[in-house]
Amino acid sequence: MPPVEPGRKAPAFSVPDQSGARRTLKEFAGRPLVLYFYPKDDTPGCTVEACSFRDAWARFRKAGADVLGVSPDGAASHARFIGKLRLPFALLADEPVGKRPPAVCAAYGAWVEKSMYGKKYMGVARTTYVIGPDGKVAARFDKVSPEGHADEVLAAIAALGSAPCKATPSKSGSGASARAPRSPRTKAPTRRGSTSTRASRRR
Q1: What is the pLDDT along the chain (203 residues), one digit of tens a residue?
Q2: Are strands 66-71 and 90-93 parallel, antiparallel or unpaired?
Q3: For the CA atoms of the chain, what is the radius of gyration?
Q4: Sheet-wide strand order for 127-131
Q5: Chain Cα centroid distance, residue 21
Q6: In this predicted structure, what is the pLDDT of residue 106?
Q7: Which among 83, 94, 114, 202 is most buried, taking Cβ atoms within 10 Å?
Q8: Are strands 90-93 and 33-37 parallel, antiparallel or unpaired?
Q9: pLDDT at residue 116 in the model
């Protein structure tokens, strides 16, 4: 499935979180929702990204927004990741069933073909969606760079009420691989990027 374009209705979902509780898009109706897709729990870039959202949590709550992380890891893995980093938001266990891809990742176009050392495989493209109170995609960030990502997402939430934002590559880093913080309390460093809003194309 291709990524969901801003202005389109966000695909519905119903998947368990780290506690096994079923979470749906419908329960977040009427308020902004940040849905961020990441490859794997407890890996360097995913740790930096999760800490970025954690450290900005008070600002997300002040903006009236909720945050959900999504990966193909199971509920037990998510629970350990949340406990280790003291994450204040839920993580959805979008596990593949049989040969079928992770349902939510696929519906949002985040399940893509990747390549490493010349070997191709399917995996999660680091992607973030901001879903407006009306259930439509307000902004999408492609090829997300983990460091400081929360700041650009908060800017998109602040812009709600205007025209939908164009899909844009993450501006929070240079594209170099991010390093994990030394401890769960360590904040990921933030960087300011350009104000370009060029539409991104997935490679």
Answers
A1: 899 999 999 999 999 999 999 999 999 999 999 999 999 999 999 999 999 999 999 999 999 999 999 999 999 999 999 999 999 999 999 999 888 999 999 999 999 988 888 889 899 999 999 999 999 999 999 999 999 899 999 999 999 865 455 565 666 543 333 333 334 444 444 444 333 333 333 33
A2: parallel
A3: 16
A4: 90-93, 66-71, 33-37, 127-131, 137-142, 168-169
A5: 19
A6: 97
A7: 94
A8: unpaired
A9: 81
Please, are residues 169 and 143 in contact by the beta-carbon 8 Å criterion? yes
Report the distance separating Cα 32 and Cα 158, nearest Å.
10
Q: Locate all alpha helices (DSSP H) within 22-148, ordered by sequence.
A: 44-55, 57-62, 75-85, 103-107
d(CA 150, CA 129): 12
The reported pLDDT for the residue numbered 181 is: 38
Active site residue 46: yes
- 127-131 and 137-142 beta bridge pairing: antiparallel
pTM exceeds 0.85: no
Fill in the amino acid letter for 70: V
Residue 194 burial (10 A CB sphere; 0-12, 13-18, 19+)? exposed
Catalytic residue among 46, 51, 105, 165: 46
Residue indicated by tokens 């909720």:
66
CB 145 within 8 A of CB 49: no
Map residue 167 onto helix, strand or coil.
Answer: coil
Q: Do 105 and 37 meet the contact criterion of CB atoms below 8 Å apart?
A: yes
